[in-house]
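Reply to dn_fold:

You asked what the input looked like. This is it:
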Amino acid sequence: MKKTLLSLFTGMFCTLAISQASVGNNSFENWYTLNVKDSLDYWYISTQQYQSSGILDVNNTYAISNAHSGSYAVHMETVLWYDQGAGQNDTLFGYAVKEAANQYGFIGFPYTDTVDIFTCWYKCGIVAGDMGVIIVELSKNGTTYSTTNYPVVGSQSSWTQLNIPLSGGAGEEPDSVFVGFASSDPFNPGVAKPGSWLEIDDVSFGFLAGSVTPAAIPNNSFENWTYETIEQPSAWFSFDQLLYPMTQSLYVTKSTTASAGTYSAQIETTFETIMSGIPAILTNGFFSPALDSVIGGTPFIAQPAQISGMYQFAPSFADTGYVYVDFWNSTSGIHSMYADTLLDAAVWTPWSIDLTFTEAPDSVIIYFFSGDNLGSTLLVDDIQFTGGDVSVTESAIASTWTIFPNPASGIATIQFEAADQIRIFDLSGKLVYSVSPATGTTEEINTALFENGTYLVQVIKSGYASVQKLNVQH
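and this is what came back:
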């Protein structure tokens, strides 16, 4: 486990350098609700796939209320996602498939009525050169005897009915059926265009050659959705967002046993972390599925003399907790790496690490690790940088502002004591919003204008800055 953590610790890089000498939410007072699972009952959607892969900032298949009938329809959209690990953009199409699954992937769902037509209601906005698809396959005894790929192109702004004949389907009785929709053609890589979208509602089978109406497809009007959320500390990352959809358990939780203020962060080595081989860590970086590693951290240009904090630790079987800190310069690649052991401590106990620098850093990443043994529990609070060129003004900025709601779908409010400038970047480093507040202590951001994803919100005062992550989910 420790080797796994050290490999994560040494494999990081910086993506955005700004003037800063603190980490956001250093006292763990701010927590936010993180959406970790969007699922459409009896269907499998693209958002589910990305969430299970740790790509929580992509939500490109979701419920809409402007339905043909009932309360909801399903919206699928092709989006451009910046792959932080690969350092490049990737185009991800939205999809929904009516399926059962085995170890080999998607398979048809059980269905035994004879059919010869598929009906649905749709709207679309397919970008020129792209093509959405509707796919229906009929199978029996493991053999597919009817495959229909219906292309969807152009724009359709009002609900329109499609009646799609199923080739080879008349008079045959299947034992399984596959139904799928996608906002771009999944069979032609490279043609998908960001912005293409497809909406579907009220799907059904018919048998025109017979007198019996085929059975309804489960959740055929997309009325039933399941959403699951967890609470996590703002500006910090844990693997809970990957584990919880599978295990329904958390290893990082909010604790009211605080060194100061109201909350601290509790990290517990659990059965799930041990069995998955994932270390029970809390870090100010984030996980890159492409690199299979934690990367990022906080932009940081100061050269403090010390980093310190408070902790409690209840080890299991003489276990040891750790704090790891790495300062580095992304231009030269020079790292200054530090670690400290956290031993049995039933009351709040200070830890500190003396720091020296051979070169000014531009980034810092911090890990807390609760140990290898089942049940070892670590509480952390009040992380501080002191001495050197760290000023009181600079260190205090991070605790004087917050952003809510987070995730946001419409208006997100930034509440602050004072700010010279507020800027928002996407994960590629592109500036997407900037304002210089003249008066007041709040700023409202219309996130409806942003694409789904994760953004870095920067509040600047007196030449120093604090950064927090904002998740946008429409």
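The helical segments are 2-9, 46-52, 240-247, 271-276, 392-396.
Hope that clears it up.
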